[in-house]
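LAB NOTEBOOK - FOLDING QUEUE
OPERATOR: T.R.
BATCH SIZE: 2
PURPOSE: Compare the predicted structure-token outputs for two unrelated chains run back to back under identical settings.
PRIORITY: normal
REVIEWER: second-year student, initials M.K.

ITEM 1
FIELD SEQUENCE / FIELD STRUCTURE:
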Amino acid sequence: MKKSVFDLQAIKDILTAHRREGQDRVWKVALTGDALLNNPRWNKGMGFTLKEREEFDLVGRLPSAYNSLDDQCARAYDQLQSRTNNLAKNTFLQSLKAQNWVLYYSLLGRHLKEVLPIIYTPTAEAISNYSHLFRKSEGLFLSYPFRQRMEKDFLHFIKGKSFDLIVVSDSEAILGIGDQGVGGIGISTAKGVVYTLVGGIDPSRTLPIVLDVGTNNKDLLSDKLYVGWSHERIRGKEYDDFIDTFVQLVRKHLPHCLIHFEDFGVDNARRILEKYRSKHAIFNDDIQGTGAVTLSALMSAVGVTKSKLSDQRIVVYGAGTAGVGVIWQLRDAMIRIDGISQEEASKRFYMIDKDGLITKGFGSKIRHGQEDFVRPDEEWDDGDKLDGKIGLLQVVKKIHPTVLIGTSTHAGGFTEEIIKEMAKHVDRPIIFPLSNPTRLVEVDPSKANDWTAGKALLATGSPFPPAKMPSGKDYIIAECNNALIYPGIGFGAVLSESKTISDSMIIAGAQALASLSPALKDPDAALLPDFADAPHVNFEVAVAVAEHAIEEGIAGVKWKKEEVRERIKERTWHPIYGTYHYDPSGEK
């Protein structure tokens, strides 16, 4: 894996210079008085200068002092810290976002690693209690009972606006807490925040949507305060027709708008992706995002071991949406990068679910997407089975894997015996326990590090503290956080007006991320960049994706590949105020 021509410091310098240029921008704004103060896109709060206060009829509506954005962030951070738990902090941040976008995103950007878990971790609790916490709607609610007027509602919402990104969920598989009905709008808005925060997409051009197709959550169905459609989930043709109506509306009225599918049920996620990915720019983070960031980490790891992707024997423990998504992404990279056939690449994988290694004998239990990776029954005999199934330990003992990936949410599933057995046969075992939250991880990475005497190359799905090498040196655990890559993939697709998001575009993004790996300089360093560098990493990912779209001939723009870096810099949104002048025909 080649090192990026632009290292992280160079990218930081580019974006810092662009941010400073943006501070001198002049905006013509048509709002005045309370209308301006109540508009989160244009409100500056105490950041309005005296001249602006006079021009926009704000004198008397604000205290007399002026606060810089730095001052405002300091005050907001103190207010955030005064909240005693993460749910309260999340509620405060939501309130801040409803008042002032620039202050909200500036605060988050200054404390990125600290606040991202606050945005996400309590979101599960906030979503499950959405109906009881409900105060004000955000985003677009498309409900099955009103399907006949979907286009009318959609057009009314987007009238006079421009959108680059839609984040949509049907809420069936939310954040490990399952079916949450209409409450899934919370995850759509949170993902949109991340696209802006680390991807640079203008928040005014993002649209969170929930598709309310009912719920099978009995607690919600029996809750008199539930604000969604109190009906069991629709399935089959009714569901497919509803999804199709939505997709066709976007294709018709927002043809260059990326659709990001989030937290759809395992039976629908891949099916929807396969049906529409050749017709429109769509992305499923649970399938493609997890696969892409895992591919980047594995590329870094094989760079350390001086091997190829296709040299690996890969066991994936957990064969749901994320696990299958990882396998498909890794296989595709083997085919495209190493030049082997699909059949040969498929043989490199072993999928294990709760019933053991998936073999032909599973019959009807083999789910869509798993078919290509099912192992022949003839490879195994009765001696390989324990309690009638072929477990993880038996697979490790027999095939001597070089890579072990966990997407099972089986806490402690990678036992000491399994890890030590793997390490007997591999010089640098590659171990990725990706399940989250932390309490569901397959193995604590510090234990895997100890059990392999510091030889393991590790990446996790949640943040962990460094492990200790035998030398006493800290080993930084790479975090396979999807937000290191999906915002950049999305921004690159949006900027290039790509007709689709191809597999090769995703691989280009993954290669860009891997090229920034600290392990390229030090084999005992982290396999992925620190999450604090996510904005700069995603900038480089976006460049690679847009360049590849142009090379592949699926971009809608007419400009050349050599222009991509400058175009992305120009389109990157930064949380800065600029200077306002009143104009009755200006921004609203």
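ITEM 2
FIELD SEQUENCE / FIELD STRUCTURE:
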Amino acid sequence: MSDDDDRDTLKILVATDNHLGVWEKDEIRKDDSFVTFEEILQIAQQQAVDLILLGGDLFHDNKPSRSTIVRAIDILTRYTLNDKPVAFQVVSDQSINFVSRRVNFENSNFNVGLPVFTIHGNHDDPAGADNLSAVDILSTCNLVNYFGKAALSGSGVGKIRIEPVLLKKGNTKVGIYGLGNVRDERLGRMFQTPGCVEWARPAGSPDCPQNEWFNVFVLHQNRVPHSQNAKNCIRESYLARFLDFVIWGHEHECIPESWEHAASEDKSFSLIQPGSSVATALSEGESRKKHVVLFEINRERYRTINFPLESVRPFMHDNVVLQDHVEVAGEDTEAITAFLENKVENMIQKANSRAVGGCDSMLPLIRLRVDYTGFSTINAQRFGQKFVGKVANPHDILLWHKAPVRKTKAPGEVSENASLSEGIRPEALDERQIEDLIAEHLQQHLEILPEQDLANALHNFVDKDEKQALHDCVRAALAETQTAAVADRVAGASGPEGDVDAAVNAQIQHRRNQQSAQATTASAARILPSGPSDASLPQPNGTAAIDEDDDMGVPGPSSSRPAFAGQGRAGSRPPTAPESARGRQATLGEAFGRFGRNTQQGESSARTAQSPAPRGRRGRGTATPVATPTPRRGATRQTAQQATARMQQRASSEDLEPSGSDAAEDLVDEIEEDDDDDVISLMDEDEPVAAGHALFLASLTHTLTRSPTLTHSLTH
């Protein structure tokens, strides 16, 4: 390569899914992720790269341990801080591109000689009230340049704008688009809905035409479905057609050789899937050789060079069917044990023979999937004890499974999941996903709680230690159903007066119809090319131009029904009245929350609750003792009807029009005066809910129809 070519060549070392801190409590494997990550930085130094580009999941946990953070900071400090000059420039708006609002090597307080650019993945994604992650810590320390943390805006599905980091080295101009992990189902719907994804493009000028930019996109999403009940994945056809190269993170199987995807008849882009640098699961995809990729760009030309990682722990994966190898009766456990022991010994020998460099002293990982159809199993823990000191995972060497039973289909019958199951790899069946368990056991029984929202809440509760995740999920789903049911009663669309079941069932049916329409639209969109909206990005000289020739969209689902809280739930809240209507009439949610919280506690002792604001005609501004009823089964609607009648009689005699908040307070008083602890059912007698919510819905019909302000705020 000539000196001129070298001055124009931008050299990027690409790695994804480093998972620092994985297996940190395993005495044998606790150092694996750090050793390999350090090797990656050594390769970067040896190849004199301009920058390192990481594709997400730098950390294995959303809240890594202090030891993991300290070791990560130590490694990055030793390899990235030096006096080597940085040979490229960032010419885009850094305050938009980076979380730190400034690229680290331009900070005069730090000598950064090897810049690291990274997005977040699904393991180290931002969470909590401040939307922070461990990657933010490294960014604040000026050790990495954290980009791709796009903010989701808008209602419903939401909108997202992807801004490029524009780099210039000599005559080479590169735009790196980054997008940190977003839930696949939501991002897939956004890509399929016109106008929901906007790509900012550099504006063209006489000195720098727009087509001179080499466009790279790095993302961290599922590329193929990994379970039978997978809701969505991101298809190559969803991506913008102007892209030249795509780096796909999250998929752990290493596919370092690039392949082409035809975005249109006259345009295509290349993809690579570097895979993980450490095995986080004992699956077949993880057993393939690990690599990092050197990506060199010279103007409109590029090339990739693969570098195998030599410090990765050896891993052998194999499958065996006992019916094909064991010529004994199915109950002969001694013969089965002897056969499997011999098989594992051979796998250990092969793994040790493939070890190179520093790996020859590392105990290998061994995983044997055993199809035991027609045979008895043996104790896997006892079996593993024979290989202690020979393998790194003696307790989970064997994975027992049976061949799936194929149902006989009628001629011409097609399975509902036929198209999905064709793309599932065998190792995807090694692990059970939360979504699969919920779909398998609860799909036919969930009506108020959406299946996907419950799965996400459980995932956040377990993996991200968000203590309020399940509580927030239930509260949001209940608020959506209550709001929609009240609105339906106001509109008179739910049947006879006081029929709570009809209102709630109508909302449940509406949700099911909406989900069915979205699934149909998503299935149709998978076979159609889709491209989001495209906007220009101003150059440093301030010029801008609009280029929409790359736009292509697939119509998304539509509904004539107003959108209420919880539809496209991420970031949504129950609707409230306008500011002008707040005060006495606006706080319908206060009444729900006040009485609902007391009822759901299930405590037998009385408690007091502070009224959140003065309540109008009764002047309620002080603390009011509220008895906490204990829910029990076997109630009818008589209590609600009696309370409604008394409220109407009182309003008529006093010639007053109760507001929303007053009506709520009145209803609470009526229930307390009755001293009736009955529970009323929203669905049927076998599914009771707290009396406060059901009685409130049943008794508020008359009040809502006489309160135009509150009715207007609910319906809009």
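REVIEWER COMMENT (ITEM 2): The chain has a mean pLDDT of 74.
FOLLOW-UP: none requested
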